From TrEMBL:
Keyword Oxidoreductase: yes
Keyword Cell membrane in record: no
InterPro entries attached to this UniProt entry: F420-G6PD/mer, Lucif-like_OxRdtase_Rv2161c, Luciferase-like_dom, Luciferase-like_sf
UniProt entry keywords in alphabetical sequence: Oxidoreductase
Family annotation (SUPFAM superfamilies): Bacterial luciferase-like
Residues of the Luciferase-like domain: 14-261
Top-level lineage group: Bacteria
Protein name, UniProt field: TIGR03619 family F420-dependent LLM class oxidoreductase
Length: 297
């Protein structure tokens, strides 16, 4: 079983100079199949909407690095690991800049980028970037339209939501068209995955919050929707994030991964270590331990 891990993007490890590079290089050498980032712009003192499942914001989010910079650093010091996101809030970025950043990352990594995109849930973050939160679904569809052009056409022109791209030469293309995966459990989000995405971004928690059979039935629903839309349901990928609560033992994590992976059969699986470690060294120690328990592929 091949397994990936979150980069030390949040919490105390994020403040360690050179920590992303040191972790990425060592984790790949140890056998990590993928290196992954999330996206957190703000950690409000008094959030309009608190972090899901809590009444505030996790303290780790008060220290947060930029996901694009982290992936660029990881690309520079690795050779084989998938570089993924679960999830980048695509609708909080200016679309043309966003398309250029993703393209550059794929070229820099030699075609290893797996962009996992979503629309976020924080009104505070949307207010900070000046984007109406009510438009996020429409804006995500627009971003997907733009990426399709940006990655396939040498001349791009596009009228989007609040912006216009004049007919322009865009000849830098990805090494291969990055497989865009989309997050979400809501009805509209699942329909968008079925109609438009290359894959889905489910989340499994340790201890278990959403039963495995809920994830498998949701995936079956998505694939049925893809077939109805005239797409090949078997071509829809799955990149599974395993969220782990603070204090969880490595053996419990390995047991959970061994349970969910054979059932859901994801193409990519990674463990989010953000709530389990305080330093880059701890991140690396836990990575090595989990690779021993789960396997190195």
């Amino acid at each position: 079983m091949r397994i990936g891990f979150s980069l030390p993007l949040f919490g105390k490890a994020a403040a360690e100079p050179g920590g992303i590079a040191r972790y990425a290089r060592a984790a790949e050498k140890e056998g990590a199949a993928g290196l992954w980032v999330g996206d957190r712009l703000l950690s409000p003192v008094d959030p309009v909407v608190s972090y899901p499942g809590t009444d505030t914001m996790p303290e780790e989010f008060a220290l947060a690095q930029d996901p694009f910079a982290a992936l660029a650093v990881a690309a520079a010091v690795t050779e084989t690991a998938i570089l993924g996101s679960s999830t980048i809030n695509a609708t909080q970025y200016q679309p043309a800049n966003f398309a250029r950043m993703l393209t550059t990352l794929d070229v820099a990594s030699g075609g290893r980028l797996l962009p996992g995109l979503g629309i976020g849930w924080s009104p505070d973050e949307y207010a900070a970037v000046g984007v109406p939160m009510a438009e996020r679904g429409k804006r995500l569809d627009d971003v997907l339209d733009l990426l399709e052009q940006w990655w396939t056409d040498d001349v791009v022109s596009h009228t989007g939501v609040g912006y216009t791209i004049a007919e322009s030469h865009v000849r830098l293309k990805p090494v291969r068209k990055p497989p865009v995966h989309l997050a979400g459990f809501g009805e509209k989000a699942l329909q968008r995955v079925a109609r438009r995405a290359d894959g889905w971004l489910p989340v499994y928690s340790v201890p278990e919050q959403v039963p495995a059979d809920v994830l498998t039935s949701t995936l079956a629903k998505i694939r049925s929707g893809a077939e109805e839309a005239g797409r090949d349901p078997g071509a829809l990928g799955v990149a599974l994030r395993v969220n782990v609560a603070a204090g969880t033992k490595p053996e419990a994590i390995a047991e959970a991964v061994a349970k969910i992976v054979p059932v859901l059969e994801p193409d990519h699986t990674f463990v989010d270590l953000g709530y389990l470690t305080g330093s880059v060294d701890e991140h690396l120690d836990l990575t090595g331990r989990l690779l021993e328990l789960i396997g190195r592929g």
